[in-house]
Structures are given as C-alpha cells and as structure tokens.
Amino acid sequence: MDDDFPILAAVAASPTHSYQVLDHLQSIGVKATRSTIFRRVDTLIAEGVLEARMERGPKGHPRRALALGAEGRRRLSCSAAVLLREEPLESPLFALAVSCARALDEDSLPGILRARMARAARELTREERDLRFGPGHDEWETLSRERRVAHLVADIQWLQAALGRRLVPERERSRHLPEAV
Fold it and tell me: Which residues fall within 8 angstroms of residue 136, CB to CB, at 6 or more apart?
C-alpha cells in the first residue's frame, strides 16, 4: 500500500486543508501527527500529486486548499484497489478505500469484491471443517475458531450487501452465529 493513501483519500473526499486532513484521519483511527501530515502534503504538492491553491480562511488568513492532481487520482485508485483486496474489513484503511471506490474503474470494483468474497467463503469453509472435523481443540481454541467463523460470515454478508445481492439465506446466517450467553 502507498503510505500516502490516507492523505490522498482524505483529500479526495473533499478538497480540503492540511489541518482538516489530520482531523479526518485521527477521527477514523488512523494514527498521524501534525508534522508528518504537513511534511507529506508539502512533498506531495512538490511531486505534483496534490494541487494547492491559496485562499482566505474564515478570519482572513491565507491557507492552502488541497485537491488531487492527475497523478494523485492514479495513485489513489491503485492503492484503493490493493486495500479493497487485502485489508481487513474492520480496518480504518479499508473504510477509506471504500470511500474512494468511485476513483476506481467502474467495472473493477465488483470484480475486486467478488474475489474477496470468494476468498472469505473458502476461509469460512476451511474454518468450519476444522471446527467440526479437526483434531480435538481446547475450549479457547474452539472459541477462537467460532469467533473467526462469525467474523467471516459478517464479512461475507457485508460484501454481498455491497454487491447488492443476498446470497446466504437468513436461516443459513443464523447457523453460523454463536448462541447468546
């Protein structure tokens, strides 16, 4: 993944200022410092990845409004595709990648999500098989596997919803969820 992806994704959400990029990233759980963000923004402007134009703030002070340049849109698209394929669904970076999905080629997103869903389904099948037929597990390993199964089911449901389909019937979903304690 491109280390600048979080900055590019925040700017893509709306043309913004460096301090708003920092606030946005911190609010979704991406760890970043002010000096790092400001230094990277300066570098990305110098490289032509970001474009900056001067404008007046609410109190009249000058500030740079940031927007993606052509290279920034290309890098954003490539990084978002990688993250959508590999990053855990609960990750803040995955959430940023989803928010940037419009930067992807219109036909590539469904293919990425289908491949991700197929991989999750294979993992689910393997986990369920190991849970049922694998060697004897201690209580903690069984609980861990059951948790992993529940997460995989939730991931598949989310991916199905993102694709606008419902492939796992409701009665099948409840079979995978642990009983309430």
Answer: none
Q: How far apart are CA 176 and CA 73, in angstroms?
A: 40
Tell me the C-alpha distance between 164 and 169, whole Å.
14
What percent of the chain is modeled with pLDDT above 70? Answer: 86
Q: For 163, which DSSP code?
A: T
Alpha-carbon torsion 101, 104, 110, 113, what sign?
A: negative
Whether the CB-CB separation of 47 and 69 falls below 8 Å is answered with no
Query: According to the model, what pLDDT value does residue 106 have?
Result: 66
- Identify the H or E element spanning 52: strand 50-56
Find where tokens 């890098």 sit. Answer: 75
> Could you give phi then psi for residue 99, rounded to 5 degrees?
-65, -20
Only one residue has tokens 């991406």, namely: 30
Condensed to tens digits (0 to 9), the pLDDT of residues 42-87 reads 999 999 999 999 888 788 888 888 999 999 999 998 899 899 888 8
3-state secondary structure of 89: coil
At residue 56, the 3 state secondary structure works out as strand
Residue 43 or 136, more confident: 43
Residue 176 confidence class, pLDDT cut points 50, 70, 90? very low
Question: 96: which residues sit within 8 A by CB, 6+ positions away?
Answer: 5, 6, 9, 10, 28, 30, 80, 83
